[in-house]
Design goal:
With 327 residues, the chain is an alpha/beta fold. It has 2 domains: 150 residues, Spo0b-associated Gtp-binding Protein, Chain: A, CATH 2.70.210; 165 residues, P-loop containing nucleotide triphosphate hydrolases (Rossmann fold, 3-Layer(aba) Sandwich). The protein has 5 helices and 14 strands. The strands form 3 sheets. Strands 10-11-9-12-13-14 form a 6-stranded mixed β-sheet, with helices on both faces. A 5-stranded mixed β-sheet has the order 3-1-8-5-6, with no helix packed on it. Strands 4-2-7 form a 3-stranded mixed β-sheet, with no helix packed on it. Helix 4 links the parallel strand 13 and strand 14. It is rod-shaped, with a radius of gyration of 29 Å. The two termini are 33 Å apart.
């Protein structure tokens, strides 16, 4: 589990441009042979590339400094110095870049693409550029521009369609495993989920990405339990599924607590389309528990499901479709 990293700090710097060359060619009847100093090469760029197969920032945690190559100096005979190599930094979808000093968001890299973050310094001009009718032997050239360096905070926010929210041991991981090909850790004790897990369910017209967020407890928004560290991962979801154990003695209270923790973290989260899922329906052979659950909760879009028997899963998928289309 230590391999999951969703925030780290790195230093990035673009390359310095190469200096222009001061050079004179050997040619009869031309003062000092004539200028032929070439231009310096451009410094390398810092490039971020979103890669779908990456699920964590662990690589950036182990390598903290990324420097692009410097441009080579120009040479005689108008030879252009070689450009510095770009440094390409692979990141997972949903990566956000912040300036460390100010905390300002510089870029939100989204789902795919490649973005040049820092341009390398331009190479300097060789003395060949400064020749003229009155200055036939210029003995100066332009220096290359320096590169740029910046300290960044890199954050990863998981991008999913539906986020599972619930108390520890509410059945979120079992439901994810029943709906998708994901294999989260499942056990009958709290906090078996230490990191967010993702799975994909086929809804016919589209795939739906589900995110199982580690269990929330009262006070999570203030750091209790696993704290609010993982709450940010539901900020991008199109909707939420509140998973509540069908044997919960106070489902309405549990639902209010979950809503309150989300609201304290970010008010916008409670405005997302949502589903309330009464889990572990296989423990309710007569249906009496569900009726009691529904009467006490009084929630709209309530679905009773069993990960063990697959009861209610098709109806739940229809609710996923509603949420996606509603958004």
């Amino acid at each position: 589990m230590t391999g999951f990293v969703d925030e780290t700090e790195i230093v990035v710097s673009s390359g310095k441009g190469g200096n222009g060359s001061i050079s004179f060619r050997r040619e009869k009847y031309v003062p000092r042979g004539g200028p032929d100093g070439g231009d310096g090469g451009n410094g390398g760029n810092v490039v971020f590339k979103v890669k779908e197969n990456l699920k964590t920032l662990a690589r950036l945690k182990s390598t903290r400094v990324y420097r692009a190559g410097n441009g080579r100096n120009g040479e005689g005979r108008r030879k252009h110095g070689r450009n510095g190599d770009d440094v390409i930094i692979p990141v997972p979808p949903g990566t956000v870049l912040r300036e460390k000093e100010s905390g300002k968001v510089i870029a939100d890299l989204g789902l795919d693409g490649e973005w040049t973050f820092l341009q390398g310094g331009r190479g300097g001009k060789g003395n060949w550029h400064y020749r003229s009718s009155v200055r036939q032997a210029p003995r100066y050239a332009q220096e290359g521009e320096p590169g740029k360096e910046l300290e960044l905070v890199v954050e990863m926010n998981i991008i999913a369609d539906i986020g599972f929210v619930g108390f520890p041991n509410a059945g979120k991981s079992s439901l994810l495993a029943a709906l998708t090909n994901a294999h989260p850790k499942i056990a009958d004790y709290p906090f078996t989920t230490k990191i967010p897990n993702l799975g994909v369910v086929d809804l016919g017209f589209t795939d739906c990405i589900l995110a199982d967020i580690p269990g929330i407890i009262e006070g999570a928004s203030h750091g209790a339990g696993l704290g609010f560290r993982f709450l940010k991962h539901i900020s991008r979801t199109k909707g939420l599924a509140f998973i509540i154990d069908i044997e919960d003695e106070d489902p309405a209270g549990t639902y209010r607590t979950l809503q309150d923790e989300l609201k304290q973290y970010n008010e916008n989260l409670t405005e997302k389309p949502h589903i309330v899922v009464a889990s572990k329906a296989d423990l309710d052979e007569t249906g009496e528990k569900y009726e009691s659950f529904r009467n006490r909760l009084g929630a709209e879009h309530l679905v009773s499901v069993s990960s063990y028997s697959s009861y209610g899963l098709d109806r739940l998928k229809n609710e996923f479709i509603r949420v996606i289309r509603e958004k």
